[in-house]
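User: What would this chain look like folded?
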Amino acid sequence: SICSIDAFSEGSTMIPVL
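Assistant: Here's the prediction, encoded as structure tokens.
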């Protein structure tokens, strides 16, 4: 997804989104 923690999960970038 789009989150700093879930970045490596789906290959998203380090974008912290609430």
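The chain has a mean pLDDT of 59. If you want, I can go into more detail on any region.
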